[in-house]
């Protein structure tokens, strides 16, 4: 009988071995060791495949933050009119960026 080296095994590997033993597999340690074995060809193929199927970069960068709209939205929030603040922010080219920029001015008089 061959001895299986368990160097570098993790707790999950030991648990897998125990489960395979409970299921009746006589070669549980060998199966776990085989599953842990490096697969350089598979890794190389995945790397190559992801390089070919990467989405094209965006042609135009995201528009900038409209700081005047952010200030106006913050003023609306300070007045308690969140609906107006939402309308102001949604009318900009970058609503998310403008909304986050408005947080700088909330509470500032």
What does this structure look like?
This protein is an all-alpha fold. Helices cover 59% and strands 0% of the residues. It has six helices and no strands. It has helices at 11-22, 28-36, 40-52, 67-79, 82-90, 95-102. α1 (11-22) runs antiparallel to α2, α4 (67-79) packs antiparallel against α5 (82-90) and α4 (67-79) crosses α6 (95-102). The longest helix has 13 residues, at 40-52. It starts with 10 loop residues before the first helix and ends in a 7-residue tail after the last helix. The relative contact order is 0.10.
Which class of secondary structure composition applies to the elements? Answer: mainly alpha
Gap from first CA to last CA: 81 Å
Provide the low-confidence segments as ranges: none
Mean pLDDT: 80
Number of strands: 0
What is the global morphology? elongated
Strand content: under 5%
Number of discrete helical segments: 6
Tell me about the biggest sheet? none
The oligomeric status of these chains comes to single chain
Strand and helix order? HHHHHH
Helix content: 55-70%
Rg: 29 Å
Summary of the model, kept short:
The protein is an all-alpha fold and 109 residues long. The radius of gyration is 29 Å and the shape is elongated.
Question: How would you describe this structure in keywords?
Answer:
single chain; 59% helix; 109 residues; 6 helices; mainly alpha
Q: How would you summarize the topology of this molecule?
A:
Blueprint: H1 11-22, H2 28-36, H3 40-52, H4 67-79, H5 82-90, H6 95-102
Helix pairs in contact: 1-2, 4-5, 4-6
